[in-house]
Amino acid sequence: MTKRVLPLIALPLVLAGCVSFGAKVPPQLLRLTPVTEAPANSGVVLAKGMAVSVSFPSAPVELSNNRVPVRVGATEVAYVKDAQWIDAPSHIFRDLLAETITARTGRPTLTPRDAALTSGPRLGGRISEFGIDASGNQASVVYDATLVRSGDQVETRRFEAKAPVNGKIDESSAGAAINAAANDVAAQVADWVGR
Question: What's the pTM value of the predicted model, to 2 decimals?
Answer without folding.
Answer: 0.83
